[in-house]
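Need residues for this backbone.
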């Protein structure tokens, strides 16, 4: 039976979280290229990321689960839905690595000169509708 790629991720943590969710629903899934990407993240683009594959018979149900996961809104500490401050959209990405600002520019320059990963990243929420980057205001 053929295995079909249903999702490609860039880190092993996301791959295993998704794998656990699928397996809890009774779907056999397989993670490909995890070790090569974990050992050398620079090869991520070369191998096409970490692939999650399922049997052909489980593709439709797997896609339904992926859609359900992607449509679940993010909640803050008070269980309120996180909305974009610019357009009030619920379509946001958590943990987006932002390089905006002077520290991001300096970090990219140093990373380019030393041929290493950027030493500075700012993790923010990013709206997928208007590209606004924001952090939650803490009390």
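Answer:
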């Amino acid at each position: 039976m053929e295995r079909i790629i249903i999702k490609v991720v860039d880190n092993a943590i996301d791959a295993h979280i998704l794998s656990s969710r699928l397996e809890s629903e009774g779907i056999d899934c397989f993670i490909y290229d995890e070790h090569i990407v974990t050992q050398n993240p620079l090869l991520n683009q070369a191998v096409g990321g970490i692939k999650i594959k399922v049997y052909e018979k489980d593709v439709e149900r797997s896609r339904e689960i992926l859609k359900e996961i992607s449509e679940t809104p993010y909640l803050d500490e008070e269980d309120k839905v996180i909305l974009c401050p610019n357009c009030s959209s619920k379509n946001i990405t958590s943990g987006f690595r932002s390089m905006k600002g002077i520290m991001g520019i300096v970090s990219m320059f140093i990373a380019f000169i030393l041929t290493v990963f950027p030493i500075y990243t700012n993790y923010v929420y990013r709206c997928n509708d208007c590209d606004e980057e924001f952090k939650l205001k803490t009390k």
